[in-house]
Amino acid sequence: MSAVTAGRSSRGVVDLVFRARELSIVAALAVLVAVTAGVNGNFLSGQGMKDIFLNASILVLLAVGQSVVVITRNIDLSAGSVVGLVAFTTGDFLAADHGRGVVFAVVLGVAIGALCGLVNGLLVSFGRVPALVVTLGTLYVIQGLDHLIAHGRQINAVDLPPALLALGNGTVLGVPYLPVIAVVVMLAVGYYLRSYASGRDFYAIGSSPEAAGLAGIPVRRRVMGAYLFSGALAGLAGVLWLSRFGTVVADAANGWELQVVSAVVVGGVAITGGVGTVYGAALGALLLTTITSALVVLKVNPFWQQAITGALLLLAISVDRLLALRVARVLRRRNARHGS
């Protein structure tokens, strides 16, 4: 067997393992929904399912952007603070001038988010500062800027254009706009990462930045692009947050950065980079949102919601490690057989 064929076979093993991981999340979702619906039949009501998908949509967008960063063996802890900054700043502009509509809000929000992502990307890729340090720092800087702009004020739904509020609560053919937007973005990004050479570069960088550089991949530019994209999606999520809830204060989405990372890791994107899909990350976001909704329906103490999320994160990281070791052993055996 040729080296190329062996490489494709090895990649097939990895894809099979992590496809099984995504199927296990679907199974867990099905069990969770069935058990909760058995205890409280209202959980599967039309409004109940609509609320779950609406609440998951923003987290899915953030998880898709975070996935691209994590695949490159980096992390973005500033996503939640970007959502808060964009939601308040965009709402402030719209409240001051009702003539500005949805398109203006989306463009402004994405631009602000992209600028935050650009700062992160420049510091990580060209400044070579550890991603954890950079994004933790920008998290606090952005939060401080948000509080400075807000200055104790809040944005109310009555101050916003009706078209923007319709985006967050309206439907098309009975399906809310927000889940449709999240699914379209997820499918587009997933297709790009798998079908384009530049998309596959992110996986190569996550697997081995040094080897990717030797292969001629522009590592710094790709990493900066990952942060730019993550910031832009966080900006879009901020606009959707504003349209969904209407009332926004300075600490909107506070603490969501940990939920985003949890969704990505639970969804099978390896924290060590190079492995995972945006589809798995989206499923992880949906699982975490469904768990939260189920615990509320079952009237479980809010403390356990956070505890379960933390336990899932630890379990996912442990499973990733065990799977990585298992896959490595399988690949070594295959390579040994092909080499003999």
Question: Secondary-structure map with pairings?
Answer:
Layout: H1 3-39, H2 46-71, H3 79-96, H4 102-126, H5 131-150, H6 162-169, E1 171-172, E2 175-176, H7 177-195, H8 197-207, H9 209-214, H10 219-245, H11 256-266, H12 278-297, H13 302-339
Antiparallel strand pairs: 1-2
Helix pairs in contact: 1-12, 1-13, 2-7, 2-8, 2-10, 2-11, 2-12, 3-4, 3-5, 3-10, 4-5, 4-10, 6-10, 7-8, 8-10, 11-12, 11-13, 12-13
Structure commentary:
By secondary structure, the chain is mostly helical. Helices cover 78% and strands 1% of the residues. The chain is built from 13 helices and two strands. The N and C termini lie close together (11 Å).
Average of per-residue pLDDT values: 85
Task: Assign the CATH class.
Answer: Mainly Alpha
- Broad shape: globular
How helix-rich are the residues, as a percent range? over 70%
Which strand order does the major sheet show? 1-2
- The string of secondary-structure elements, in order, is HHHHHHEEHHHHHHH
Question: What class, by secondary structure content?
Answer: mainly alpha
Largest sheet: 2 strands, antiparallel
Radius of gyration: 21 Å
- Helices, by number, come to 13
State the low-pLDDT regions, or none.
1-13
Distance between the termini: 11 Å
**Whole-number tally of structural domains:** 1
Find the CATH topology: ABC transporter involved in vitamin B12 uptake, BtuC
Strand count: 2
Q: Which architecture per CATH?
A: Orthogonal Bundle
- The proportion of strand residues reads under 5%
Keywords: Cell inner membrane, Cell membrane, Membrane, Transmembrane, Transmembrane helix, Transport
Main location: membrane
GO cellular component, one term: plasma membrane
Subunit structure: The complex is composed of two ATP-binding proteins (LsrA), two transmembrane proteins (LsrC and LsrD) and a solute-binding protein (LsrB).
